Every structure is written in C-alpha cells, then in structure tokens.
Amino acid sequence: MAIILGIDPGSRITGYGVIRQTGRKLEYLGSGCIRTSVDDLPTRLKLVYAGVSEIITQFQPDVFAIEQVFMARNADSALKLGQARGAAIVAAVNADLPVFEYAARQVKQTVVGTGAAEKAQVQHMVRALLKLAASPQADAADALAIAITHCHMNQNAVRMGNSKLTLARGRMS
Fold first, then answer.
1. What is 2-169's CATH topology?
2. Structure pTM?
3. Where, in this chain's numbering, is Mg(2+) 1 bound (predicted)?
C-alpha cells in the first residue's frame, strides 16, 4: 500500500491529487488547488511551498510525483513554472519524500491513451478510473492523473522485475 501525492505545478494555480494504491486498486483520498492571488512571484512561491507542505502533513504521502517542465511559448512563463515546481519539490524533499517526474504527454498517454489528449478527456478518465461522482477541477484532475501515472509506472517496474523505481538526480530512471 502506498499513498501518492501528485502535483500539477503553476505559479498561480497548483493542482494536487492524493490517491492510495493497494495492489492494482486505486482509491481517491483528496484533491484541490493551491491558488495564489498575489502579484509578486516570491510570495506566490512561498504560498506554493506552504500549501504543498500542508498537504504533505495532512495526507502523509509515501511518494511525490510531479509534472516535468515543458517548453512554453513564453520563456518568462516557463521560468515561473519552473520556480513553482522547485518550491513544490523542496516541500517534498524537506519531508523526505522520493520525487518522481513525468512528462505531460506520458501522463496523458497513460490515463487517456493518447499523448495529445485534451484537459476534458483527462478529467473524464480520472473520474472514471477513480470512480468519482463528478469530474475534479482541471488542475486537480491533472494532478490526480500524475499520481495515477506513477502507480502504473510502478506496477510496470514490479512486473519487469524491479521491486522499486530508482531515482537518478531526482528523475525516474
């Protein structure tokens, strides 16, 4: 049994999703968004860090999974996203959690079946896979999809003879 915290990072909205994996069974524990409404970036990063730290304290996850940085159209936006990711990762590392990173296309491929899936498709599949009464908010659904991807990757590693995924410089290898 493992509790997985998935994070969809953002400097304004950071989605989170928490699931429990028992064998092949996935159980929804919680999800939501950390919203930062202040204008200055340092304060937003502080709020992301504090919010993720609070979620870790509340749910006591065993594993932390986060979306990898992707190249945005705007370099400034990509830098801010990277800084928000960093704030979330530091919260996880401070709690001694192993950190795994997954590309957005890999998450969509795992959950929906295509790496080019739309947000609504991810929401629908997360709702179906976790047997939820309603679709979670888009950023929370993305975070849950990241946690689900970690479960599937971990199951595949076990099937292939690796008892655990290994970390190399903070990335799954």
1. Nucleotidyltransferase; domain 5 (3.30.420)
2. 0.89
3. 8, 139
- 101 is known as an active-site residue: no
Nearest Cα to 6, choosing from 25, 135, 172, 15?
A: 15
Query: How far does Cα 172 stand from its chain's mean position?
Result: 14
Summary mean pLDDT of the chain: 89
Instruction: Using alpha carbons, list the distances in angstroms from residue 154 to 30, 130, 151, 160.
Output: 21, 17, 5, 10
Domain ranges in the chain? 2-169
Letter for the amino acid at 102? Y
pLDDT one-digit tens code per residue, 93-113: 999 999 999 999 999 999 999
For the chain, how long is the longest CA-to-CA vector? 48
**Strands (DSSP E) found in 92-168:** 99-102, 167-168
CB 150 within 8 A of CB 65: yes
**Active-site residue flag, 139:** yes
User: Would the annotation count 8 as a binding residue?
Assistant: yes
Angle at 26 between CA 15 and CA 47, to 5 degrees: 20
Q: For the chain, state the CA radius of gyration.
A: 15
DSSP-assigned letters across all residues of 56-92: HHHH--SEEEEEPP---SSHHHHHHHHHHHHHHHHHH
67 annotated binding-site participant: yes
